[in-house]
C-alpha cells in the first residue's frame, strides 16, 4: 500500500497540475509556451535522474532512498504552494521530479526483489502499475476539484499525503543489509550529461518557433544536446559503475518495452495538455467539468486492477502493448472530429474510453516486460530505465506539440480548436501508429522460432 500509494501520488501530481494550467496562466500571466514548463520541469527532473535514482537504490539501500526522496517530495510540494513566482514554481516542480526519480525505481525494485518472477510478481506489478496509471487518470478529477478552490491547492495536496506515506513507510518497509559503498560508486557525470541533453533539446524545441528552426542559436542548442548525449554514452562505456550498463540494451524485449513506454506516455500527456487548454480556454468548461469528462478513463484503469495479473499471465506483453497503443490511436483520431456544438457523448466520450483501455493494457505490460529476466542486482536499473523512457517521451512530445501550436500563428476562436491543434494531434497519432508497428514486428520476430520449430526447419 505504501509503495503503490507513492506511485499513485506521482501520477496524481502530473495530471492534477495539468488541469490547473489555464488558471495558473491567467493569474501569473504565463502563455502556452511558459505553461508547458510547469509540466516539463517535473518530467525532466523525473526522467533526467531516474537512472541515478535506480542505481542509488541498488547501492545505498532501497528503503533509505525511498523514504528520503519521499520526504523531499513532500517538502517541495508545500513550498511550491506558497510562492507565486513562475520561475520558482518551475524550479520546485523540477525538484519534485528529481525526488520522484528516486522513489519510483526504489519502490519498483523493492517489489521485484520481494516477489518471485511469475504469477506472484505479475500480480504485485499489476496492482502497483495500475495504481500509478489510476493516479494519473484520477488526478484529473482531483485537479478539477482542487482548482475550484485555487490552483495553489493542486500544488499543496501531495505534501500532506507524502508525509502520511513517509510515516507509514518508516514502520512497514523492512530494513535489509546492503553492500558497503560510497558516493564514488554513483555516476554523477552520467546523470548530469543525460539531464543536460534533455533540458537543452526541450528548450530548443520550445524556443524554435520564436527565433526560427534554422537560426544559429537553435542549431547550436541541438548540437550542444547531441554533444552531451555523446558524452553520456562515453561515460557509460567507461565508468566502473555506470548509470546505464549499455549491455542491457541488447535485450530486444527490454528495448521494445522502453520505446513503447515513451510513445505511450509522450502521446497521451501531450494530448491531455492540448485538450485541457482547448476545453477550458476555447469551450469555456470549468476545471471540474473537464476533470469529470476524463473520469471514465480513470474508472476503466481502476477496474482493470482486479484482473490485469491474470491477463499478464495468459497474454504476451507485446500483444497487450500493441492492442493498447492501437486503442490510443483510435482515441486520438476520433477526437479530430470535434466541432463546435457537439455533445460530450459524441466528441469526447469515445476518445476517453479508448484512452482508458489503452492505459489499462499498456502501463502494466511495459513495466512487466521491462523488468522480466533482469537480475535482482539490476532491477533498480531496469525499473529506472523504463520510467526514464516514460518521462523523456512526455517531455519531448509536450515540447513538440507546444512548438507546433506556437508556430501556427492563429488566434483563439471560441469553440474552435487551438491553432495548430489538429496538426499536433495528427503527429501524436502517427507516433502511436509507429509504436503499434514496432510491437507487431516484435511479435512476429518472437513467433518466428515457434514456426521454424513446428516446420522442422
From TrEMBL:
Its main location: membrane. This is MFS transporter. InterPro entries: MFS, MFS_dom, MFS_trans_sf, Sugar_transporter_CS. The keyword RNA-binding does not apply. The lineage of its organism: Bacteria, Bacillati, Actinomycetota, Actinomycetes, Mycobacteriales. Keywords: Cell membrane, Membrane, Transmembrane, Transmembrane helix, Transport. Residues 1-447 form the Major facilitator superfamily (MFS) profile domain. It is found in: Cell membrane. SUPFAM superfamilies: MFS general substrate transporter (SSF103473). PROSITE patterns: MFS, SUGAR_TRANSPORT_1. PANTHER family: BLR6921 PROTEIN, MAJOR FACILITATOR SUPERFAMILY MULTIDRUG TRANSPORTER MFSC. The chain crosses the membrane at residues 35-53, 65-83, 89-113, 125-145, 151-173, 185-206, 212-235, 247-268, 288-308, 315-335, 347-368, 380-404, 424-444. It is a multi-pass membrane protein.
Amino acid at each position: 500500500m505504501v509503495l503503490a500509494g507513492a506511485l499513485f501520488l506521482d501520477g496524481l501530481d502530473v495530471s492534477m497540475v495539468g488541469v490547473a494550467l489555464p488558471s495558473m496562466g491567467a493569474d501569473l500571466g504565463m502563455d502556452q509556451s511558459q505553461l508547458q514548463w510547469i509540466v516539463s520541469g517535473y518530467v525532466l527532473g523525473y526522467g533526467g535522474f531516474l537512472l541515478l535514482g535506480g542505481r542509488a537504490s541498488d547501492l545505498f539501500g532501497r528503503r533509505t532512498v525511498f523514504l528520503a526522496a519521499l520526504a523531499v517530495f513532500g517538502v517541495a510540494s508545500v513550498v511550491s504552494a506558497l510562492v507565486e513566482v513562475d520561475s520558482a514554481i518551475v524550479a520546485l516542480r523540477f525538484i519534485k521530479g528529481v525526488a520522484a526519480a528516486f522513489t519510483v525505481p526504489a519502490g519498483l525494485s523493492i517489489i521485484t526483489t520481494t516477489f518471485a518472477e511469475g504469477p506472484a510478481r505479475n500480480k504485485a506489478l499489476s496492482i502497483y502499475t495500475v495504481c500509478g496509471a489510476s493516479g494519473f487518470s484520477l488526478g484529473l478529477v482531483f485537479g478539477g476539484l482542487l482548482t475550484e478552490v485555487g490552483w495553489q491547492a493542486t500544488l499543496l495536496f501531495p505534501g500532506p499525503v507524502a508525509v502520511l506515506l513517509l510515516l507509514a513507510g518508516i514502520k512497514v518497509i523492512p530494513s535489509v543489509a546492503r553492500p558497503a559503498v560510497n558516493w564514488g560508486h554513483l555516476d554523477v557525470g552520467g546523470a548530469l550529461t543525460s539531464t543536460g541533453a534533455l533540458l537543452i533539446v526541450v528548450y530548443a524545441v520550445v524556443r524554435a518557433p520564436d527565433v526560427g528552426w534554422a537560426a544559429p542559436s537553435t542549431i547550436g542548442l541541438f548540437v550542444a544536446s547531441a554533444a552531451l548525449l555523446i558524452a553520456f554514452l562515453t561515460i557509460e562505456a567507461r565508468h566502473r559503475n555506470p548509470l546505464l550498463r549499455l549491455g542491457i540494451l541488447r535485450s530486444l524485449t527490454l528495448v521494445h518495452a522502453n520505446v513503447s513506454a515513451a510513445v505511450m506516455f509522450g502521446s497521451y500527456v501531450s494530448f491531455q495538455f492540448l485538450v485541457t487548454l482547448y476545453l477550458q480556454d476555447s469551450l469555456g468548461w470549468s476545471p471540474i467539468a473537464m476533470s469529470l469528462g476524463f473520469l471514465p478513463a480513470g474508472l476503466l484503469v481502476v477496474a482493470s486492477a482486479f484482473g490485469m495479473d491474470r491477463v499478464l499471465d495468459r497474454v504476451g506483453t507485446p500483444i497487450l502493448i500493441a492492442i493498447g497503443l492501437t486503442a490510443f490511436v483510435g482515441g486520438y483520431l476520433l477526437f479530430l472530429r470535434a466541432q463546435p456544438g457537439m455533445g460530450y457523448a459524441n466528441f469526447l466520450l469515445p476518445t476517453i474510453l479508448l484512452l482508458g483501455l489503452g492505459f489499462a493494457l499498456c502501463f502494466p505490460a511495459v513495466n512487466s516486460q521491462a523488468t522480466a529476466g533482469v537480475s535482482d542486482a539490476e532491477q533498480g536499473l531496469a525499473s529506472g530505465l523504463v520510467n526514464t523512457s516514460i518521462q523523456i517521451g512526455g517531455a519531448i512530445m509536450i515540447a513538440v506539440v507546444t512548438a507546433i501550436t506556437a508556430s501556427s500563428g492563429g488566434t483563439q476562436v471560441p469553440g474552435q480548436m487551438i491553432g495548430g491543434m489538429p496538426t499536433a494531434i495528427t503527429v501524436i497519432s502517427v507516433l502511436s501508429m509507429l509504436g503499434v508497428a514496432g510491437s507487431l514486428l516484435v511479435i512476429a520476430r518472437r513467433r518466428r522460432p515457434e514456426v521454424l520449430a513446428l516446420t522442422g526447419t
